[in-house]
Amino acid sequence: MSIQDNINNIKKVLKENITLIAVSKTRSLDEMEEAYNSGLRDFGENKVQEFTDKYEPFHKDVRWHIIGHLQTNKVKYIVGKVFLIQSLDSVRLLKEIEKQYAKAGITANTLIEINIGREENKTGLLLENLEELISEVEKCNNVKVSGIMTVIPIGNEDKCREYFKQVKNVFDSLAKRQFNNINMQYLSMGMTGDFKIAADEGSNMVRIGEGIFGKRIYNNQKVNK
Ligand SMILES: *Cc1c(COP(=O)(O)O)cnc(C)c1O
């Protein structure tokens, strides 16, 4: 099936209010162009270098999402270029984003990434550190938090559902409270293998790579410049 067919099939099962992000890591600009021509305007990248390579040559009316772990020394390269930094997961990173965006005189929009499965090989904030991060966000002048992102552990449907429910609960409980700089708008959860379950459980932003572009082949980065 073509990229366009894949996108149309995914859109059929997603409700109107769910944003579909095309996760374009490792994909060529030509493949991304097909997704663009199918109407997608949200693109997600997990590496800053690959993102900056694609940013210049690609369409200017897209919303870029940084979805992978963001090293503090890379923040300066993305300032002013991304719609959402979805991987805010530490006070240290928050402070660097605040510093770099303040320098540019603009505001960063972020999602807090939660490591709900407490997996040691994954990045993302552990729940017990959430309140500390929030209190630091409240002090910022150049960073806003617009919701939560999560990548859940691999597991069967029941397990997935349980993790998504937990994250939705965190999202809802924060949405009920009043914070400076925090507005719970986006709940970014669900990937190729589990986006239907995520959508059932209240996600309003899904990040899909293989389901759109086909299987990823690593070490074969094809950014055509
Ligand atoms: C790669 C990636 C995705 C997309 O994964 P697929 O299984 O290809 O849909 C979504 N979110 C994050 C954070 C990723 O790194």
TrEMBL record:
PTM sites of type N6-(pyridoxal phosphate)lysine: K25
Keywords: Pyridoxal phosphate
Alanine racemase N-terminal domain segment(s): 3-215
InterPro entries to which the protein is assigned, alphabetical: Ala_racemase_N (IPR001608), PLP-binding_barrel (IPR029066), PyrdxlP_homeostasis (IPR011078)
One matching Pfam family: Ala_racemase_N
GO function terms (MF aspect): pyridoxal phosphate binding
Cofactor entry: pyridoxal 5'-phosphate
SUPFAM superfamilies: PLP-binding barrel
Family listed: Belongs to the pyridoxal phosphate-binding protein YggS/PROSC family.
Role of this protein: Pyridoxal 5'-phosphate (PLP)-binding protein, which is involved in PLP homeostasis.
HAMAP family assigned to the protein according to its UniProt record, in alphabetical order: PLP_homeostasis
Protein name per the record: Pyridoxal phosphate homeostasis protein
Taxonomic source organism: Clostridium oryzae
